[in-house]
Each structure stands twice: as C-alpha cells, then as structure tokens.
Specification:
The chain folds into 2 domains: 6-163, NAD(P)-binding Rossmann-like Domain (Rossmann fold, 3-Layer(aba) Sandwich), CATH 3.40.50; 176-269, ProC C-terminal domain-like fold (Orthogonal Bundle), CATH 1.10.3730.10. 54% of the residues lie in helices and 13% in strands. The chain is built from 12 helices and 8 strands. The protein has helices at residues 13-24, 40-49, 57-62, 76-83, 102-109, 141-152, 165-174, 176-193, 198-218, 224-231, 237-247, 250-271; strands at 6-9, 32-35, 52-54, 66-69, 92-95, 115-119, 129-135, 155-159. Strands 3-2-1-4-5-6-7-8 form an 8-stranded mixed β-sheet, sandwiched between helices. Helix 4 (76-83) crosses helix 5. The structure holds NADPH dihydro-nicotinamide-adenine-dinucleotide phosphate (NDP) and (2S)-3,4-dihydro-2H-pyrrole-2-carboxylic acid (A1CAB).
Length: 272
C-alpha cells in the first residue's frame, strides 16, 4: 500500500490493533505516530513497534497527512475542538468511532474535510478483523484506496454506499465478537456445571468454536444451514439442543440484540 505520514489520536485497544497490523505488513514505523494523554500505552507501542509517540495531539496532527480519530465517541467533540487550533486543510481523516456520523465529525472538526468513517472490530489485533467503511464526497480515489488498504492490513473490508449501513456493520461485525464471547461464556459455565474444571470447559468450547469457524470459512459454497444440518443427526443430540434454541426464540433474540446495537448507534449520534 501507499505510505503516508499517519497519526492515531488515541492509543487504545483499536489503535494498537491497527498499528500492529500495519507494522507487521511492512508499513514504515517512522511514518506512524500515536498521541495519547497518558504514557503507558504509548510507551508500550513504542517498545513493541518502534513508532513515534507523543502526548501532544496538536503537534502529532499538524505533522500528519492522515489522521485516525480513535478516541471514545464521548471524547470526540473535545478532541475536535482542540484540533481546530491547527490547520487541518489537505489532511485525510479516518474515524473508527461508533455511532458518530460524518456530519457530526465534520462539525466537531470545524470543516468539510475528506473523511472516511469506519467500523472495525477487536479481532483486527490478530489480523482477522472485519471493517466496514464509508467515504464522504470529499474523499478522492487515492484517499479511498489508502483507507481501504489501511484497514485491509488487519483483516477484511467492506465499503458501504449508504452511511446508515455502518450502524448495521456495527451490529453484525463491530459488536458481534462480544456476542460470541457471551455464548461461549454460557457454554463454559454449563460444561462446568456438568463436571468439567474451568480450563477443560474452556478448551472444549474454544476448540469447538475454532473448528466451526474454520468450517464456515472453508466452505463458503455451503449455506450455514447446510453446515448445521451436517451436525444434526435425525433424532439425535444436536436436534434436541437445536429444538430448544428454536422453540425459545433464539432467532428473535438475535434480531432484537442486533437491532438494539443499531438503535444505540443512532442514540450515540445525537448525544455525543
Ligand atoms: N473496542 C471495540 O471493539 C471497538 C471500538 N471502536 C471504536 O474505537 C474507538 C476507540 O475504542 P477503544 O480503542 O476500544 O478505546 P480505548 O479506551 O482502548 O482507547 C481510547 C484511547 O483514547 C485515549 N484518549 C482519551 N482522551 C484523549 C484525548 N483527549 N486525546 C487523545 N487520546 C485520548 C485514551 O487514553 P487514556 O486511557 O490515557 O485516557 C485511550 O488510550 C471508540 O470510538 C470506539 O467506538 C470501534 C470498533 C470496535
Ligand atoms: O461497544 C461499542 O460501542 C464499540 C463499537 C463496536 C464495538 N465496540
């Protein structure tokens, strides 16, 4: 990918994931800066990836061609106001914040800058991320390619043409790792109630999940329902378990949960 001087404002979990992927893919560390109010995460990034670090957002942004906005949504207005003290013309902005629409981000930055709004997820830390991207009309073709390549360093990407679809990406991929963890927690607890120690219970569910995930990825020509049917012997144990999920409304529950994520993104766009 093209290499540009890039600054991450906010050096938390998601920035670390993306920076890790960039450096592993050969992006020159000397072109990457992270800015954060406290030092420990910055020092860890410098130690692990040899990038530039600073506690001075303004200096870091002034020197950058690309600015990744990676603070919590509720802190973005404060950061935007601070950044207005420097000349932001000509910079490409990439936001990873949940919920905040381009119009709000532009108001926070005080101008109509090229802005790619994205929604990544934490598996990006392992190079297995899924990121949705949306570009505003100021983003030119090279900027679009740069943003796609950047998030492509840490996983797969999907562009959306309608900004509202980013909230659906949040529900389906940004937040969804947590749904899977919850499901695994519940299975681990049950396996322990059935007599396994904690480590063995975890091994059982994590290896089953890993195998199932690989089966999904390696059989993209098969419907998910076909993979399920291959496990589900007629009148057998799986059928008994699936019947419980279906009777007790798992599909409706999933629908309600994902809709709640979308609704919350909509609320966040108004309150932050
Ligand atoms: N976690 C997730 O699964 C996902 C998160 N996101 C989005 O990513 C963004 C970051 O989330 P995440 O990395 O998880 O959060 P973190 O809390 O891990 O990181 C946020 C960082 O911002 C720093 N920060 C606070 N105030 C400022 C400031 N004024 N200037 C610069 N940096 C500041 C914090 O520093 P300190 O700790 O020192 O206060 C912290 O290191 C959020 O907007 C979230 O919506 C998107 C997709 C998935
Ligand atoms: O929970 C959140 O708001 C963020 C966005 C997606 C995952 N974490």
């Amino acid at each position: 990918m093209q290499h540009r001087k890039i600054t991450f404002v906010g050096a938390g979990n998601m920035s670390r994931s993306i920076i890790s992927g960039m450096v592993k893919s050969g992006y020159p560390a000397e072109l990457i800066t992270a800015s954060n109010p406290s030092m420990p995460k910055l020092e860890a990034l410098q130690r692990d990836f040899a990038i530039q670090i600073t506690q001075d957002n303004l200096q870091a942004v002034a020197n950058a061609e690309v600015v990744v906005l990676a603070v919590k949504p509720q802190l973005m207005a404060q950061v935007g106001e601070q950044l207005q003290q420097t000349n932001l013309d000509g910079k490409l902005f990439i936001s990873i914040a949940a919920g905040l629409p381009v119009s709000r981000l532009q108001a926070m930055l005080g101008g109509q800058y090229p802005l790619v709004r994205t929604m990544p997820n934490t598996p990006s830390a392992l190079g297995l991320g899924m990121t949705g991207l949306y570009a505003n009309s100021q983003v030119n073709a090279p900027d679009r390619t740069f943003a796609g390549d950047l998030l492509g360093q840490v996983g797969k990407t999907a562009w959306v043409e309608k900004e509202s679809m980013l909230d659906a990406v949040t529900a389906a991929a940004g937040s969804s790792p947590a749904y899977f963890f919850l499901f695994l927690e519940a299975m681990q607890d049950t396996a322990m109630q059935m007599g396994f120690d904690k480590d063995t219970a975890r091994l059982l569910v994590e290896q089953a999940m890993l195998g199932a995930a690989h089966m999904v990825c390696h059989n993209s020509d098969l419907e998910l329902s076909t993979l399920r049917a291959q496990v589900t012997s007629k009148g057998g144990t799986t059928a008994a378990a699936i019947e419980q999920f279906e009777q007790q409304g798992l599909r409706e529950l999933v629908n309600n949960a994902m809709q709640a994520a979308v609704n919350r993104a909509g609320e966040m766009s108004k309150v932050f």
